[in-house]
Amino acid sequence: AKLLKGVAEAFDLADPPERIEIYDNSHISGTNPVGAMVVAGPEGFMKGQYRKFNMKSEGLVGGDDFGMMREMLTRRFTRLLKEEDERPNGEDPTWPDLLFIDGGQGQVSAVLAVLAELGIDDVPVVGVAKGPDRDAGREHFFVPGKPSFMLAARDPVLYYVQRLRDEAHRFAIGSHRARRAK
Predict the structure, then answer these.
(1) Of 7, 32, 85, 162, which one's alpha carbon is 20 to 30 angstroms from that of 62?
(2) What whole-number distance in Å separates Cα of residue 182 and Cα of residue 170?
């Protein structure tokens, strides 16, 4: 609860998030591209909610991280909107309170474009980019409408976000390896 309150403060959220979705993708020079969604909440990682996305777009050029992010988020939120329409009154689908995107301003812009296309404007998006020399602890955060920023080196929220990002990375790489093996 304390960490989620810290996340809300660090990223200017009204309330601590109940459902955080973290997105990453994996490929080797564009081959067998896979996207991954990891979910976390007050009880920790919600492994039953994890999803992988085998990229299907014909137009994806090898290593097009922005295109992969667009496809993954389009598929995820189109499905979420469809589920919302199909549910009886009073039942809400599992909407995220916060999206962490592995990447910088480019990935965040791609995600915001997808959400705008779908008419979704109430889900906060934060890009998490590794720092110089890909050093852990020097991550830059990209929040729309603000300059990029870093959290203090020993901030528990920074460690928490690193764990979330690392889990998404682990899941994406594992899914990519499984796809390659097939």
Answers:
(1) 162
(2) 19
SS3 category, 175: helix
Strands 20-28 vs 98-102: parallel, antiparallel or unpaired: parallel
Closest CA to 54 of 35, 26, 71, 81: 35
**Residue 54 CB contacts under 8 Å (≥ 6 apart), including other chains:** 33, 34, 179
Instruction: Look up tokens 């039942």; give the residue.
Output: 91
Q: Which residues pair with 26 in a beta bridge?
A: 34
d(CA 122, CA 137) in angstroms, rounded, equals: 29
Helix (H) or strand (E) holding 109: helix 105-117
Q: What is the pLDDT of residues 42-83, one digit of tens each?
A: 999 999 999 999 887 766 666 688 888 999 999 999 999 998
What is the pTM (predicted TM-score) of this model?
A: 0.89
**pLDDT tens readout for residues 3-24:** 999 999 999 999 999 999 999 9
- Cα 16 to its chain centre, rounded Å, is 17
* pLDDT at 64 (0 to 100): 80
Q: How many residues does the chain have?
A: 182
